[in-house]
Amino acid sequence: MSRKFLDTESPGWVTDGLISEAQRQQLLARYPQQAPALGLLPILGSVLVGLSGLSVVAANWQGLPTALRLALLLASLMGSYAAGSYFLRRGNPDLGHGLIGLGLILFGASIILTSQLYQLVGYDASGLLAWVVAGVGLSYVYGSRLLVLLTVLIGAAVQTYCVESLGIFSYVTAWLIAGGLGYYWWRRPDVVGSYVLAAGLLWQAGLLIIVLHAKITWFFVPTMLIYAAGDWQPNRLGGRALQVPPLVAAYLFMFGLAIFGEADAYANVLRPPLLPYLGALGAVLALSVAGKRARGRLASLPDWLLLLPGFYLSGGLSLAVATLVVLYAHAGSVLTRANRDHDPEQLTIGAVLFVAATAVAYFKLTWGFMDKSLFFLIGGILLLGLSWYLRRRNAQVLAASPAVAQQAGTPAVIANEPGAPESTQHSSLLND
């Protein structure tokens, strides 16, 4: 709960008799006033001092003796780790983890500068792999979200270097990110870490497709494997967060297919061999369904609508209609699930997806042969009908609540009636 919210609203609660002044003081004591700016100042000061020192060293780097260069690299590295450990012991995790992260960055810089110092020509990524290993190890030791983020970025940078400069794919780097940080995520599935890890794994998968010169649709096999891992995660929020980047990638692909898929020129780019592709995707689908059933999440199965291989259809009107049907069906499934779970955030997302599908339908199917005013009329009627249906469903759920309570043997209590309990009256006031 926000301290600012308590400071603003709690006097009104006392005035309305919801809580006493003593209880208000207890709430304020439970959520003390914080000063984020005070915690931020040391971090900013350390960054500025560090940048100043790096600027001086960089300007005179070529003129420094070799021994002094190595001493500076080692001192900066050890100093960052020592300072980070000191602040962690003093109970300042933000600054401590920030300095540990700075040490991790300096470790990679030291590897690169040392190779340049001794004119070492790197034909492999063995030195940079040590950087990824250090990041994974530090993530486990300190359990820091910042270190996980840095390690994912370092893994992406190392893999990009391998692909662009060496023309190879480092399977060891990919395994360190997928296996090392994947196990870390399984044990600590926080939402932000799930987003970061999924995005990093998608980057690794995309680079693998580039190196193998495979059809780009093979990208969705490892992508949906990441999605299936989210189905098996016991933590619902962490699992769903891991699934968001794969779903975004699948939706953007289907959306692009709806817009640009009229011509059949994409056949050589998108169409892999039918049976191997469907077999691999079907195996991942079976794994996902098993996870959904085990965790009681079968309601999210319509997410797989975005993976229907419509690109095997010939280009033209048939493909445009098929992709639009998929987009509408997916938007409808999101709206239905949001209405059932009373989730306003998902309801907003579903409405946006519905409007996006309608916009594509307008520009692709109706621009040339349907009057624009007629199309807007039809679109408005659809949206109004959808709004009416959702409101009607909500009213039915609310009307059924007292009946369910009576069937369970508990009399329905109406708030603010003379016989209603005081707690119920307070709840009604809060809802109002």
UniProtKB/TrEMBL annotation:
Q: Keywords of this protein's UniProt record, alphabetized?
A: Membrane, Transmembrane, Transmembrane helix
- Ranges annotated as spanning the membrane: 37-61, 67-87, 99-118, 130-154, 166-186, 206-229, 241-261, 273-292, 304-329, 349-367, 374-390
Entry keyword annotation includes Transmembrane helix: yes
Task: Tell whether Transmembrane is among the UniProt keywords.
Answer: yes
Q: Where is the DUF2157 domain positioned along the sequence? A: 13-147
Report the coiled-coil segments.
none
Q: Domain of life, per the record? A: Bacteria
What name does UniProt use for this protein? DUF2157 domain-containing protein
Taxonomic source organism: Hymenobacter glaciei
